[in-house]
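FAQ: What does the model actually see?

It sees only this:
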Amino acid sequence: MRINRSKRPASASQIDFIPPKIKKFDLTNGLKIFFSNKTDLPIVRINFLLNGGSKSDPETQKGLCNLLAMCLDEGAGQYNSLQLADEFEILGAQFAISCTDDLIILSLQVLTENFLPALKLLSDVVTQPHLKDDDFNREKNKVLVRMNQSKAEPDYIADIAFVYFLFGNDSEYAFPVEGIERTAQNIQLNSVKNSYSNLFTPLNSTLVTVGNLDEEFFSGQLDTVFGKWNHTSLINNREINLNKTTRKIYLINKPDSFQTEIRTGHLSSKRSEDDFFQKQIINLILGGQFSSRLNSNLREKNGFTYGIHSQFNYLQEAGYFAVSTSVDAANTSAALREIYSEINKIKSGVTQEELDFAKSSLTKKYPSNFETFRQIASAISTKVIHNLPDNYFETYIEKVISLKLNDINSIAYKSICPDEIISVLVGDSTKILSQLDKNEFGEIEVLSFDEIF
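And it is asked to produce this:
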């Protein structure tokens, strides 16, 4: 049987989707709880969210919150670091701690039969971390070594440099989560302990749980394990500085590179604003899927890259639009020209056929975001972080289906801003600079990675 690949396959009928039910309540100490019962497997998944993240780092101590996160499980309660790891392993629990721009996240997944002892271990990490000198110095050294290693990775350099120039050095979102070398070197254990005292309070925390648990048993055990945690401190919510950019290229010289890493984009609206669904459609058509305009142009038509991707990225207090790819150094200006061209074209609108295909793609795959315990906990966490409506999951598909072509094209015109685009190019400046015309691409600044921060 031969398949006609010149035509897209017809969409199937609408998929029925029942989103997870979520119960919300607070413990007496103010700890916020979100619980969803999932009974198909004897598993429990927990995401413990602490507001803060790298955006809360002092100006002279970028990387502080990340170091705190790294030290949390280096001994807690009655256990040292190795003993704590062994206890989680004995329970068959998956436990991890991460730091983002906005949060410290402690995640735990365990069999239902081992839920209670695992929860107590999680409580020890949250309420009784040791934060000792030896552990701190070891974790700090890991960070500094990783920073030095990352200097050799063009994709890492492109990612953090793009965000830095996009937000500007006076913004809390400009710096990488792990910090920068000149400030991370100066972080001391006392600062980590002070950060813990300021951030780790019930009123600053949310516990998201998805699992095969009786709700009454669950709430009772939470009160037993976390109910006596009454630490309070004043959380200062700092205003995030956001400044519009103007069209410019930052060329970061990496001698002898055969390829150029390209990152380009501009600031955008937050996740909770009304244009989210329209931008989902716009991005899917522009560069959010394999059949997108950008991929069809730069990969299929011109052969500049193996793949190119665009995305609207969302932090708690900001959003930004970004395109990322890598190309042969000789094709840098030609690839950048095509990216700019497609960005300008999408601003003029999309077709009805593109809209229908994008809507079908979003709605058909949406239920697959709720298949696993991890996925459901992540979805609820996103809802909490961005303060989305209670009925967000229930109305998602309906809102996507209801989008009209005029709605999409109106938002495309407003949300895509070619005059505000900045581009970061990481590669050999001797191969790239002569390709770039200031009249075409805007101001061009050449610098080394060490000059950025």
